[in-house]
Design a protein that fits this description.
Strand content: 35-45%
Distance between the termini: 53 Å
Number of strands: 61
Shape: globular
Radius of gyration: 33 Å
Largest sheet: 8 strands, parallel
């Protein structure tokens, strides 16, 4: 037995050694930091909070094998038939024990356990010793430093007691709340190892971790200023001289800004580096239609060695609440239309894998939603990351619901939750608004002030309700209210509905009034609640409440209207089923007219409804009344302004005949990590393939391969499954084996269906999983001109003179030079100084050199190191803007260079070019380029490190060739 344990330890340590030495993408920092997912392979025991289950020697072989995310117990749609109160006195008010062995390398590294969330008090033991307790709440991340509790180079035992019992000191307890507080170790867990000198966790203090802001964002002039604050802690016994190199990387991984700072950090000191820089070229802004993300990669170096790094994604965007124009994103008004979202899923409660968080937001995007509110608590990192990637704005709030406490400890924990929420998510582009109060109760000065202290850059929302409290933004920035009916509003400030009804009549007032800045409807999905009065509160099978979609994320038919209103893609949809009792038909479309046909015969042609309840909508529904039913096909033919036509049809459903099965694999992979979940939807259809909406069939799911149906062996009515809208859903959990799986859906009397997908490999090394190549190219900008040129800011001058040997020595490419050579002995070079051209980089292309030679002009590079390079050149024929205020106006009396004839197009040739075909560059001209882009050329070439590289610029008219400036950069062939 000892030999087996020793072998296991050696295997784990070998894995750790490989992690530290494995290949990283090009240019990615190779540091002491590692981050391993600990989601797999836990032992679990439910209950017995007073037991001593933390001892290292405890025999846990009979405990259940589980993976994270994990809930203490699976839950039926009927809440297990339990009658509980909205304060949730009994349901899931239990504890769970989790045990796992981990291996730690034999080094001087710091060792941490990082938790994204656990409900709701967590105690940790390592090797039988108590490390600490986290008792702030279940919705925010935390970590434990276990460096002094582990044995380096050996296997270590960790035990968690995750306690979800009611605790009146931890919000949102003591309740009530209109949602269920689920349980368990329900978010990701990581083992993090770092150098003793390391970047701290964001949530440790106000100044810890990485904090990135954008003091200026200018969508008009297309530039941005970025401020990066990075906290580094020295846990050595001696001071260290520390260097930080921060790179802003574009989507291709190319560094577009490089910032370097150094500092001496004392022992046990946490020092915050404060770096700032700006982008002016090819700046991409983040928006709902183009959510462009940059990467901010900061590397910590000591004595020339990379010892730590951190990488953060950011989006450059400007938002504001304008008192007249409403909400503006990058200076453009947008109506905020979206939905509230609870994180819970059927059966699993809050224990949702990252893939389903992403799928929820992908579905938001499918319907054109541009905002999501995290009702009523901070939600998973994966969700916020999905919003960043997909272009969905976020309103996030600390955990509350109506109740407040008179206990200071409760308020302290609410404040801590708010602080941690902000520190954890403050760098995300999608977040625009923090809830600054208690949900339904309105703003709370203490919460608002805390949030503004943590993050003065974002809006705060009042979280009010139309039936109580002061109907105003109060201290906060946004009057955020619950609008389900008449409300008090004097129009002295914009109104924002953080909750409200859904559908066209609900959205119309907000689209019609710029001061009604947005509607976040209640709610995206049906959800679990012990609310006693909703219409399904007593249902024996399904007690989930509300939802634009079912709790299984199946869209309710009325939701389709949003595709017509919010998306630009041509769309048409028939709302009602075609059946004998149908008397009215509603069509959703963004066309300007719709024809309704029965079995090919025109019934009516209509335009969008003119009903006043739809005032403000771009695409109101089409209503067809007094329709005579006829068996067969009902067709809606949408006719668009450009003459194009789009059709959709519905048929009356016959008897149930078969099942069709769809696996929701769009936009995702199904990972063999033991915890990933895939949604499956089985639809009952007739012989024609028409959905039978009211069938009573129960659908039984089965899986072939390493996966399982969630709830299959639990008594929670999950399998077989009833249908809603003719569809029976199932949740399929991944196993750990890569390969094909096949799901089959069966029901008595129906033809069965099967569908297959593949489980793909999964790595626990999260740093490697997320590592992307970095290209930090050396580059240099050179501004050519006579001795009186006005140098472009942050460019290097090349001062030239007529008919002399002019050369330039590079600053960044040591030993390399550039020369201007005439194409032949008969040519002439003339150098021009200041001409005062107006425009961006006008100082660079407002002067330069013009060569008149039928062989053109050569830009020759010598002693360039071997490699690939990109050369960008500027070609502009300048005219003067000099006037009486110009001290150099007398120069124009003698200067004639700018009057020489010039080529309006230039061909760039070289034997060194990567592209074999010639490159053509346009030549611009004039004294004002305020709104125009100057002529440029761009080529990729190679240098062998020995021979000079000659780039020839020439035209076809035997006229002058202008060269004003150039940028030379290292490059890669992507």
């Amino acid at each position: 037995m000892k030999q087996i344990v020793l072998l296991f330890i050696l295997i784990n340590l070998s894995i750790l050694q490989k992690i530290n030495s494995q290949n990283l993408p090009y240019g990615f920092p190779n540091t002491d930091r590692t981050k391993l997912s600990l989601n797999q392979g836990w032992k679990f025991h439910l209950g017995n909070p007073e037991a001593k289950n933390f001892t290292k020697e405890l025999n846990d072989s009979n405990w259940q094998n589980v993976n994270v995310p994990h809930t203490l117990e699976l839950t039926s749609l009927a809440l297990d038939g339990l009658e509980d109160e909205k304060t949730q006195l009994v349901f899931h008010r239990k504890v769970g024990w989790y045990r796992k062995n981990i291996s730690v390398g034999n080094s001087n590294k710091k060792v941490f356990l990082e938790f994204e969330g656990a409900h709701q008090v967590t105690n940790l033991w390592v090797n039988g010793k108590h490390v600490g307790q986290h008792a702030v709440g279940g919705y925010t991340p935390f970590h434990f430093d276990i460096t002094n509790f582990v044995t380096k180079g050996q296997e270590n035992q960790i035990t968690l007691l995750v306690d979800n019992r009611r605790n009146e000191m931890i919000p949102p307890d003591p309740g009530p709340f209109d949602y269920v507080k689920f349980s368990g170790l329900y978010r990701d867990v990581y083992l993090v190892e770092t150098n003793p000198v390391h970047v701290t966790f964001n949530w440790e203090t106000l100044n810890s971790g990485v904090h990135i802001t954008t003091p200026t964002i200018d969508p008009v002039n297309k530039n941005a200023t970025i401020n990066i604050k990075t906290a580094v802690k020295n846990e050595n016994k001696e001071k260290v001289n520390c260097k930080i190199i921060t790179r802003i990387l574009n989507k291709e991984g190319i560094s577009v800004l490089r910032l370097v700072d150094t500092s001496t950090i004392k022992p046990q000191e946490e020092y915050q580096f404060n770096q700032i820089g700006s982008l002016e070229d090819n700046v991409h802004f983040w928006g709902i239609d183009n959510p462009y993300l940059y990467r901010v990669n900061s590397v910590i170096k000591i004595d020339g060695k990379e010892i730590d790094f951190v990488e953060t994604k950011i989006g450059l965007r400007k938002f504001e609440q304008d008192p007249v124009r409403g909400f503006l994103l990058n200076n453009e008004p947008i109506e905020l239309i979206g939905a509230n979202r609870h994180q819970q899923y059927p059966y699993l409660g809050d224990a949702v894998p990252n893939s389903l968080h992403y799928k929820d937001m992908l579905q938001f995007k499918e319907y054109g939603f541009n905002i999501m509110r995290t009702a009523h608590y901070p939600q998973d990192n994966a969700l916020i990351e999905a919003c960043d990637e997909l272009g969905i704005l976020v309103y996030e709030e600390a955990p509350t619901w109506i109740s407040i406490s008179d206990k200071e400890e409760w308020w302290n924990n609410l404040e801590k939750s708010a602080k941690t929420m902000i520190r954890n998510h403050r760098n995300h582009a999608s977040i625009i608004m923090w809830g600054a109060g208690v949900n339904h109760r309105g703003y709370v000065p203490r919460v608002h002030n805390t949030i503004k202290q943590e993050d003065p850059t974002r809006l705060t929302a009042s979280q009010g309700a139309r039936w109580t409290g002061w109907q105003t933004s109060g201290l906060t920035d946004v009057n955020a209210n619950m609008l389900y009916g008449p409300f008090i509003w004097d129009r002295s400030e914009p109104m924002f509905a953080m909750e409200g009804r859904r559908g066209p009549a609900a959205v119309a007032p907000f689209k019609n009034d710029p001061l009604m800045t947005g509607l976040i409807s209640w709610t995206a999905h049906a959800y679990y609640t012990f609310h006693p009065t909703h219409d399904k509160a007593k249902d024996k099978i399904d007690r989930t409440r509300s939802g634009m979609m079912t709790i299984f994320r199946y869209p309710r038919p009325e939701l389709e209207w949003y595709k017509a209103e919010m998306l630009k893609t041509p769309f048409v949809n028939i709302l009602e089923e075609w059946q004998p009792e149908t008397k009215e038909i509603t069509v959703y479309s963004n066309a300007n007219a719709v024809e309704l046909l029965s079995n090919g015969k025109l019934l009516e042609k209509a335009t969008p409804s003119k009903g006043t309840i739809y005032d403000g909508l771009e695409h109101a529904p089409f209503h067809f009344k007094n329709i005579k039913y006829a068996p067969g096909k009902l067709t809606a033919k949408a006719i668009f302004t450009n003459g194009s036509i789009l059709e959709t049809s519905k048929q009356n459903a016959g008897k149930p005949y078969a099942i069709t099965l769809k696996l929701d694999t769009e936009g995702r992979q199904f990972k063999a990590d033991g915890s990933d979940v895939l949604m499956a939807y089985a639809t009952v259809v007739d012989k024609n393939g028409t959905t039978v909406p009211n069938t009573k069939h129960l659908i039984k799911f089965a899986v072939k391969g390493d996966a399982s149906v969630i709830g299959d062996k639990a008594i929670i009515n999950a399998n077989p499954m009833f249908t809603e809208y003719g569809v029976a859903p199932a949740l399929i959990r991944a196993g750990n084996t890569v390969g094909k799986i096949t799901i089959t859906a069966k029901a008595k009397g129906l033809k069965s269906a099967s569908a297959s997908t593949n489980l793909v490999s999964f790595s626990t090394n999260t740093l490697i999983n997320n590592a992307i190549a970095i290209y930090d190219f050396t580059k240099e900008r050179v501004d050519l001109g006579a001795s009186d040129q006005l140098l472009q800011f942050n460019w290097n001058p090349w001062y030239g003179a007529d008919e002399t040997n002019n050369s330039y020595s590079f600053k960044s490419f040591k030993g390399a030079t550039a020369t201007i050579e005439k194409g032949s002995v008969n040519g002439i070079n003339r150098w021009l100084g200041e001409m005062n051209v107006i425009g961006k980089y006008g100082y660079a292309y407002g002067d330069g050199v013009i060569t008149i030679d039928d062989k053109g002009v050569n830009l020759v590079f010598k002693n360039l190191p071997k490699g690939t390079y990109k050369l960008k050149t500027w070609h502009h024929a300048p005219s003067s803007n000099s006037d009486l205020m110009d001290p150099n106006k007398d120069k124009l009396k003698s200067a004639t260079i700018h009057k020489l004839p010039y080529e309006d197009a230039i061909t760039i040739l070289s034997d060194a070019l990567v592209e074999t075909k010639p490159i053509t560059a346009k030549v611009t001209s004039g004294k004002e380029m305020q709104w125009e882009t100057p002529g440029t050329g761009e080529v990729i070439f190679t240098s062998d490190g020995n021979k000079p590289v000659k780039i020839n610029f020439n035209g076809k008219g035997n006229k002058g060739v202008w060269l004003n400036a150039f940028e030379l950069s290292e490059w890669e062939n992507f």
